[in-house]
Write a structure and sequence with these properties.
The chain has eight helices and three strands. It has 143 residues and is mostly helical. The protein has a three-stranded mixed β-sheet with strand order 1-3-2.
Amino acid sequence: MRKTNISVYQSLYDKRGRIGDPCVYCGSPSSTLDHVPPISHIETMSISDALCDFDPALYPACSECNSAFLGAKWFHNMNDRKSFVADCIKKKYKRILNFPKWTDDDLKEMSPEMVDEIRATERLSDDTKKRLEFALIGFVSIK
């Protein structure tokens, strides 16, 4: 497998946000920029073909969403990419998404440590549900 020289292709990509902006896939703070289309795809095309067929862009993405595409098939539009991320979130966090809500009455006889663990898991469940809801919203371009 040859090593890609990213700098050759970097100039083709229009930057549509920056690290720290919300991830375009799940809404979490981004820590990376996602190349769309992936360099691994665009490097197989001539530059003129790439510019005619695609609108190459760098989108802010959290590392979890960006890495979900490693080894994945090429998705031709952002809505398909968001749908793929939503499926990945559902699979990865299936147990957390089904975590029950506990009432104060349920928790009053438990140790403070156990209550803290349950509340932390509830927060993770709520945050994951928000990410999933965001991922299911259709893509809006940020030019």
